[in-house]
């Protein structure tokens, strides 16, 4: 049984919430070799221009790129609802 998060209660039924994560898979169904698989939530940045001069200027001016966050989740042990949060940025 997964560890329940301290004082986490389901907003819908009041059941205990347990911490967990979603696993990503390769095309053939194999889990990642490292075992630290996670899903990522992406906030899109400014797209890079197709014009090489404009693209270079975007890089020089440090225009914002995509911001990526690791998705963490909790599951209710009673009604099975899932809550996701994306607070921790990826490295």
Query: Structural class of the helices, strands and pairings?
Result: mainly beta
Provide the residue-averaged pLDDT.
Answer: 77
Give the SSE string: EEEHEE
N- and C-termini, Cα separation: 30 Å
Q: Which of globular, elongated, flat, extended, rod-shaped describes the shape?
A: rod-shaped
Which consecutive residue ranges, at least 5 long each, have pLDDT under 50? 27-32
How would a textbook summarize the main sheet? Answer: 5 strands, antiparallel
How much of the sequence is in beta strands?
A: 35-45%
Q: What level of helicity do the residues show? A: under 10%
The total number of structural domains is 1
The number of helical runs is: 1
Number of strands: 5
Q: For the CA atoms, what is the radius of gyration?
A: 19 Å
